[in-house]
Amino acid sequence: MTIAERIKEARRVAGITQQQLAVRAGVSVTAVARWETGANPSSLARAALDRALPGLALSEDVTAKVG
User: Fold this and answer.
1) Is 7 a member of any domain?
2) Residue 67 lies in a domain
3) Measuring CA to CA, which residue among 52, 55, 58, 56 is closest to residue 19?
4) pLDDT band at 63 (very low <50, low <70, confident <90, very high)
5) Confidence band, pLDDT 50/70/90 cuts, at residue 58
6) What is the tally of structural domains in the chain?
7) I need a surface site. Which of 29, 37, 49, 66 has the fewest CB within 10 A?
8) First to last CA, the chain
9) DSSP string of 14-62?
10) Kind and range of the H or E element at 11?
């Protein structure tokens, strides 16, 4: 799951809108929309997201396939 997908899913599970997440994170709605479509949040924005959506893992999953 990508960072964008994680942010969107965490927001959906929390039952909040992009506007509400933006307010909680202290950023613009445009920033939230960009994150949910693939723009990676900066380290400062990641800290704000962590406070706004506790438990959200923002690092990419790295899995190795054993063939």
Assistant:
1) yes
2) no
3) 52
4) very low
5) low
6) 1
7) 66
8) 21
9) HT--HHHHHHHHTS-HHHHHHHHTTPPPPHHHHHHHHHHSTT---SPP-
10) helix 3-14
Task: Decide if 59 is inside a domain.
Answer: no
What does the alpha-carbon distance between residue 28 and residue 45 come to, in Å, rounded to a whole number?
A: 11
Residues 26-39 pLDDT 10s = 999 999 999 999 88
CATH number at residue 38: 1.10.260.40
Over residues 1-20, the pLDDT tens digits come to 888 888 899 999 999 999 99
Pair of tokens at residue 34: 């960009």
What SS3 state is found at 10? helix
Which residue carries 């063939």 as its tokens? Answer: 67
Is residue 46 one of the residues assigned to a domain? yes
